[in-house]
Design goal:
Number of strands: 9
Strand content: 5-15%
CATH topology of the largest domain: Rossmann fold
Helix content: 25-40%
CATH architecture of the largest domain: 3-Layer(aba) Sandwich
CATH class of the largest domain: Alpha Beta
Radius of gyration: 18 Å
Number of domains: 2
Structural class: alpha/beta
CATH superfamily of the largest domain: Glycogen Phosphorylase B
Oligomer: single chain
Order of helices and strands: EHEEHHEHEEHEHEEH
Strand order of the largest sheet: 6-5-4-7-8-9
Mean pLDDT: 86
Distance between the termini: 45 Å
Low-confidence stretches: none
């Protein structure tokens, strides 16, 4: 079986959830054709990885209310309702290298991602910075991941890793693996956090995007439904007075993050 998936990082990571169930039901380890082969390195349920244009079996779902992982399971004809979990398989050397890179950061480490590929899904730094400051004061190390950096004039972040994810996904996976918690928006890093069994606290747009939450995803609804003009996937700018991403109960989010941190410390 050849599975070609022409999709973004988050949708591609979602495919890893169904590979083990596919093998259990059919005994098949597929060839995976993808623009992000690093996601499938060391995966014991893949025959080989290709970047050529081969038979297309899967396309990502196109509506916000679609659950990515369940969609793949249905398209592949899986008969049972497996507890689906994304998986990324790191090597020992990758883990050790990341540990060494973050060795000076003792205590709780939070991976923070504020930006996505769509402005309408982003968290504004000015909106979220007071909550992040409180988390830092609580003793957590905030590690920023993203393709661009906010204007962090007050120095909230202990470390920042900026760049296009596709350039070195394996290093990104390993660095994320050293974090205890993901706090951020609905983007590829959210799905990667799940693949590394890192709890996720996510800010979803109020338009059924939360249907992609996993069993270890924590979220609270935005208090304002997104206007239709802000739901276009790659809209360049969603005016501030219309942003559903500016209407969360940040105190509720902060309290939940502290609750998760305290459990991790136990």
């Amino acid at each position: 079986m050849i599975i070609k998936l022409n999709a973004a990082i988050g949708d591609t990571v979602g495919l890893t959830s169904v590979l083990e169930p596919l093998y259990k039901e059919t005994g098949i380890k597929p060839v995976v054709s993808t623009s992000f082969p690093e996601i499938f390195y060391n995966n014991p349920f893949v025959d080989r990885i290709s970047t050529t244009n081969e038979t297309i079996l899967l396309e990502p779902c196109k509506v916000y209310s679609c659950n990515i992982v369940q969609y793949y399971a249905n398209r592949l004809g899986l008969k049972e309702n497996y507890p689906l979990q994304n998986r990324v398989y790191l090597t020992r050397d990758e883990v050790l290298e990341a540990k060494n890179e973050l060795k000076e950061l003792n205590g709780i480490k939070i991976a923070v991602c504020l930006f996505s590929s769509a402005d309408s899904k982003d968290l504004r730094y000015e909106y979220i910075k007071l909550m992040l400051r409180k988390l830092k004061s609580y003793g957590a190390h905030l590690i920023f991941f993203g393709t661009k950096h906010p204007n962090d004039q007050i120095g909230l972040f202990s470390k920042s890793f900026i760049g296009k994810y596709g350039n070195n996904l394996r290093r990104l996976f390993a660095l994320m693996n050293e974090c205890d918690l993901y706090v951020g928006v609905d983007t590829g890093l959210f799905h990667i956090a799940n693949a590394l069994s890192i709890p996720q606290i996510v800010f979803f747009r109020n338009n059924e995007c939360s249907n992609n939450a996993y069993k270890d995803t924590i979220f609270f609804d935005s208090q304002k439904e997104c206007p239709s003009r802000c739901l276009i996937p790659f809209l360049g700018n969603c005016r501030s007075e219309e942003r559903c991403m500016d209407t969360f109960d940040l105190e509720q989010y902060y309290n939940k993050i502290i609750e998760v941190i305290d459990k991790i410390k136990q």
